[in-house]
Amino acid sequence: KAGVTQTPRYLIKTRGQQVTLSCSPISGHRSVSWYQQTPGQGLQFLFEYFSETQRNKGNFPGRFSGRQFSNSRSEMNVSTLELGDSALYLCASSLATPTDTQYFGPGTRLTVL
Amino acid sequence: TQLLEQSPQFLSIQEGENLTVYCNSSSVFSSLQWYRQEPGEGPVLLVTVVTGGEVKKLKRLTFQFGDARKDSSLHITAAQPGDTGLYLCAGEGSNYKLTFGKGTLLTVNP
To answer: Which residue ranges of chain B lie beneath pLDDT 70?
Structure first.
């Protein structure tokens, strides 16, 4: 069974630009969560989608948004990038809830210059 | 806001030594998960503990959930270089939300 895939793996952007990251969950998984990982703050929850609906949201500004498609694939978007947005963005999928066994993708490393 | 404090933040030991990593909170969690993350990869779930006082063993790794479900520990016996990685704990709060600790970076030297 294929794992969680994330594209792209690496991304370099400049301040003010916007970026879209993609996540393909494991087949049959309907819950997709997004996390931001930085050395200083650790792994922080961004949002979770289930059946194309945002079910939970973390404490991030509105510049961070996401969506989920009918095939459970998910995208997250960050607008007006800031230097502090540089991080590893991780996507995780699970059958129904994040507290089921979550399978993480390898992440997208975003660098904002 | 539920917080999880992990200690120590960094740990460097020699192969064959034992170690314990702690995960503490002032909040009660429904369950607690432990993950290991290796460089360039996402975290991988090691275990989930659910019942207060529960102890689970995974080969040389022993996980314990505190009686009050506010804290947990991970003990590794006879550490090996393959145990090197970032160990993360995550607590389940309300509405399926997971709160992660900042992690313990373990290096096991041969």
So the answer is: 1
